[in-house]
Amino acid sequence: MSTFRAVRIDKTESGTTAGWADFDDADLMDGDVDVRITHTTVNYKDGLAITGKAPIARRFPMIPGIDFAGVVETSSSAAFKAGDKVLLTGYGVGEGHLGGFAQKARVKSDWLVPLPAGLELADAMSIGTAGFTAMLAVMALERFGLTPNDGPAIVTGAAGGVGSVAVALLKKAGWHVIASTGRPQEADYLKGLGAAEIIDRAELSAPGKPLGKTRWGAGVDTVGSHTLANVLAQTKMHGAIAACGNAQGLDLPTSVAPFILRGVSLLGIDSVMAPRTRRLEAWSRLATDLDRDALKAMTTHAPFDSVMDVARDIVQGKIRGRVVIDVA
Predict the structure, then answer these.
(1) How far is CA 11 from CA 29, 60, 81, in A?
(2) How many CA atoms lie within 13 A of 15 on its CB side?
(3) How are beta strands 15-24 and 104-107 bridged, if at all?
(4) Beta pairing partners, 253
(5) I need a surface site. Which of 2, 73, 207, 324 has the fewest CB within 10 A?
C-alpha cells in the first residue's frame, strides 16, 4: 500500500491543530483520478486553515491546500490518462475534500484542468487560485464592457497574490493601474509589475462618505469592508468594481448612492465553483496574457517542509506576491 506525507489538521476541544502525518491510499476520498503532486502554493485561505483563525476545514482529519499541480498516476476517466499534467483550484479541495499539501491526491476528473500549453507545473502554482481569481475579475470587467479608455483601474491589496496578478494583467491589457497597498516598501515591486501609481491603503480603509470625487472607472478589490465601500464611492459613472476578497472584513458599509446616482456596478467573483467553460478560458488566457517576467518577479519558491511556516506568514501579511511549494 502506497504511503505519502501530508499536512494534517485535526479538531480539538479548543480549536484545531496542524502537523505532519503519513497517509496511505486507503485514506484518500472518492475520485476517479489519482495525482502525484509536484507543486502546490499557499493562499490566504490556506493560512487561515493552518492557523485555525477561521473555520476553513469542514471535515477532520483534513489535508489543507486549495491548489495543486502534478502528474496523473492512475485514472478511470476517459478525460485523463497516466502521465498527463494537470492542475486543480477550488471545488472545496482543502476544505471538505483532502487537499494539496500532500504528495498525493485523489479527486474527481471534472475538477482537473489540463496544464495549458506554454505553462510548466511550477508556473501553474505560481498563478494558483490567486492568479485564477485575478483573471476571472479582469474577464468580468471585460464582459461588462469596460476598456482601458474607461480607466484608470484600481487594485486594492495590490502586493498580495490576487493583487499582484491583477496589476500585471491589467497593465498587459493597456490599463493605467493604480495600486493600493499598506506596504510602501513594495512600491518598486508594484511599479515593476505595471502599476502607474501607488496609493496608501489608509486613503481607503477608514469610514468614508457615500460619494467621493471620482478617481477610477474600474477596479479589482481584494479587501472588502470600508475599503470596498470607498472604492465604490469614488468610481466613475457607469464603472464597475470586481470584488473577490475580504482581507479587511466581510462587511460592506456602503450606501445605494454609487449605484443609483452614478450607475456603478459591483461584480462578484467566485473562483471556487466557477463554471468549467469559464475556468478553461481563464487558464488559457493566463497562459498567454500574463507577462512571464512579471510572474517570475512576483514568485518565490519554498520546500515542502516550509509550507506551514509560509501559511503562518501569509496570515500575518508577510508574504509578497506568490509562493510556490516544491512538493517533489
Answers:
(1) 18, 6, 36
(2) 11
(3) unpaired
(4) none
(5) 207
Cell numbers placing 266: 459591483
> Which segments within the chain are labelled E, that is strand?
3-12, 15-24, 33-41, 67-75, 85-89, 104-107, 113-114, 153-155, 177-181, 195-200, 216-221, 235-243, 265-268, 299-303, 322-326
pLDDT, averaged across the chain: 96
Q: For 184-205, how does the pLDDT look when each residue is reduced to its tens digit (9 = 90+)?
A: 999 999 999 999 999 999 999 9
Helix ranges restricted to H, 38-186? 44-51, 121-144, 161-172
The three-state DSSP-derived secondary structure of 133-168 is HHHHHHHHHHHHCCCHHHCCEEECCCCCHHHHHHHH
pLDDT of residue 2: 82
Q: Where in the chain is the domain with CATH 3.40.50.720?
A: 129-268
For the CA atoms of 25, 50, 186, 241, the dihedral, rounded to the nearest 10 degrees, stands at 90
Per-residue pLDDT at 1 exceeds 70: no
Which part of the chain is CATH 3.90.180.10? 3-115+298-326
Treating both helix axes as pointing N-terminal to C-terminal, what angle do 161-172 and 121-144 enclose, rounded to 10 degrees? 60
pLDDT tens for 234-266 read 999 999 999 999 989 999 999 999 999 999 999
CATH architecture, domain defined by 3-115+298-326: Alpha-Beta Complex (3.90)
Q: Would you say the pTM of this structure is higher than 0.85?
A: yes
Q: For residue 50, what are the contacts with CB-CB under 8 A and spacing of at least 6? A: 7, 9, 18, 64, 308, 311, 312
Distance CA 196, CA 215 (A): 14
Residue 145 neighbours by CB under 8 Å, 6+ apart: none
In 10 A of CB 300, how many CB atoms? 12
CATH of 129-268, one of 3.40.50.720, 3.30.70.1400, 1.10.8.100, 3.40.50.2000: 3.40.50.720
pLDDT in tens, 22-55: 999 999 999 999 999 999 999 999 999 999 998 9
